[in-house]
Amino acid sequence: MLTIRNLRSYYGRMQALKGVSLHVKEGEIVALIGTNGAGKTTLLNSIVGLVSSITGQIIFLNADITHQSPREIIRMGVSLVPEGRQLFAPLTVMENLTLGAYQRYRRKEKSKIKSDLDTIFERFPVLKERQSQVAGTLSGGEQQMLAIGRALMSGPKFLLLDEPSMGLAPLIAGQIFQIISQLHRQGTTILLVEQNAAAAFKISNRTYVIETGRVVLQGASEELLHNREVKRAYLGREYKEVWE
Amino acid sequence: MAIWNSHFECMTKDELEQLQLERLQATLNRVYRSVAFYRKLFDQMGLVPDEINSLDELSRIPFTGKTTLRAGYPYGMFAVPLREVVRLQCTSGTTGEPIGVGYTRNDLTHWTEVSARVLCAGGVTKNDVVQICFDYSLFGGGLGFHYGAELIGASVIPGSNLDPARQVVIARDYRTTALIATPGFAIRLAAVVREKGLGPADIHLKRGLFTGEPFSERTRKQIEDELNIKATDNYGLSEIAWPGVAGECEKKKGLHIFEDQFIPEIIDPRTKEVLPLGEEGELVLTTITKEAFPLIRYRTGDITALDVSPCGCGRTLIRMKKVAGRTDEMVTINGVSFFPSQIEHIFSQIWGVEPRSCLEIDRRGNQDIVNILVKVSEKIFFDEMKKLQDLKSKVEREIYQDLGISVKVKLVEPDSFARETKGKRVIDKRESS
User: Fold this and answer.
1) Do B21 and A5 touch (CB under 8 A)?
2) What's the gap between Cα B34 and its chain centre?
3) A188 vs chain B: nearest CA distance in angstroms?
4) Any idea which architecture A1-77+157-171+189-244 has in CATH?
5) Do B29 and A215 touch (CB under 8 A)?
């Protein structure tokens, strides 16, 4: 579904990605883990066209989208749930969701949008309950659900999730991961960036480990769980054993 | 015909190349970070691993040779700290100093996987009783086959280095159906079977997978006839994975290289240029999943050729021909390079057996002169001198036609053969004269 070759992304003179190649097949959840500043968010932003200074190749559904505008990329079926949700805080839940389908109204898909909205309310009953509440007043978990719901409103084939569990209590984070698994089972292809590596390994098929803008490990998630380096750096286990 | 991992063994070219590129880049990043030798090498070349943007650019990186690995013995070439290594093995050192090799847990998982692929390609299923006649030590391929066969779910007999007579008794008693051995060992087993007067009712062997020694088509035929089995070839090397680099399927049209884990190239051993697809040369391998002992463009010293034509088995993996010889055995006569094994092959085609032979090379003036000393045993000793002379000149003619070199075949008695050759396949007197 998505194939990236030798992606290099720059912020001014600073190079954030140094030739990353990866792929996501239809129906997969692929996790991307790495420490702060490794380039995970840059990678997602580059895919949806938010980083303008990039070289390399990004191919989505056999089309080269490397230098496409975000609008075009989203229209093709890619949707990003950004880090820190980025909701429209003063707007209501309903308004946020409606804005998620912004591009589709022009294409006269009103009835389809309505049925998508119903599906989202079915999946997140709490959003239905609070549809007229202002988004900024929702709890963290609810906000994350709204952010995912809003992304789904564009009718994506491919969902990018940037740290969906950030700032959530473990129990709520667990619920969010369940929702992600459900979305996957229902056929959505997902690229997941996560700090919570243990959870990411659990729900993903494959994982890429990025370090200072480069992929250093890749493979089946269950295999990488056995990698001591991964354990030490991202799972916090065996810390003592490794360092003493 | 079963395929063990149809995902990785039947990928489209695009899928495979993307996977290889991703894994290659990750491997290069790791070796640059963690292996002092590669870091120094890249720095000297002014090369950053990030610069490798396609599989073709792999050829910008210098080769890794045996000498480097020997110099790094035992731990110098490891890319992970020893505490992450769960298995240590070592090459036998038959051609010099040993080479230490390590595996992490993931490396063992991958090794076991490719071993299972080899066995599955050779027809082994969970219903087989597999007898492994390889040494289970530091040097041997026994453990690799063992784990692969267990993963398949076969009943595995660790026959290890028991003598042929004991192995035959075990094969009879346990009703072994699949034999894993060197071709030479299989021939010895067949001899024991004959000596003991055992028949098809006693020996239940159906298939055999052979490796570790030159394995000509004639030897294959001999083993298949004598043991009444289907024999397949497979390839590996202790520095990388033995078994598990490549395995022949039941079509017997070459050995499928597991390209999701190893990137093969063929080079001219003298010019070190990468050769066009299909040409014969030295096999160079890059490991792209190894964690503990990754090797970039490792010169195997084995001579083969690659073949991308589709195989009837359904695997899309590239195939390598049976190994034709080793670069260190390559002989050049009057500008023509060839391997002693090519001469042996011609003998076996014309004489019907592969006699022990030795090339004796000398120089007279500007001309290289080759005598082939052939050990004469009862098998090829004919009463009629005329017939023998015919066979001799037929071989000489055939060698001239095939390889373009004129040689003289000399028949030698076993005693003087041993004295003159001292066990060598090639005696080159040119250097001393």
Assistant:
1) yes
2) 30
3) 21
4) 3-Layer(aba) Sandwich (3.40)
5) yes
Tens-digit pLDDT profile for residues A196-218: 888 899 999 999 999 999 999 99
CATH number corresponding to B330-432: 3.30.300.30
Alpha carbons B423 and B300: distance in angstroms, whole number? 24
pTM of the shown model: 0.86
The C-alpha atoms of residue B113 and residue B115 are separated, in whole angstroms, by: 5
Nearest to A224 by CA among B20, B8, B109: B109
In this structure, what DSSP letter does residue B271 have?
Answer: T
Query: How close does chain B come to A18, measured CA to CA in Å?
Result: 6
Residue whose token pair is 């600073």: A14
Q: Record the tokens describing residue A144, joined without a space.
A: 């994350």
Tokens for A28, please give them: 């997969």
ipTM of predicted complex? 0.89
CATH 3.30.300.30 domain extents, chain B: 330-432
List pLDDT tens digits, range A46-84. Answer: 999 999 899 999 999 999 999 999 999 999 999 999 998
* Coil, helix or strand at residue B239: coil
Q: Are B26 and A218 a contacting pair at CB < 8 A?
A: yes
| Of the partner residues B26, B84, B106, the one whose CB lies closest to the CB of residue A215 | B26
Q: How close A6 comes to chain B (CA, Å)?
A: 6
Q: Which residue in B33, B53, B83 is closest to A6 by CB distance?
A: B53
Kindly report the three-state secondary structure assignment for every residue of B159-214: CCCCCHHHHHHHHHHCCCCEEEECHHHHHHHHHHHHHCCCCCCCCCCCEEEECCCC
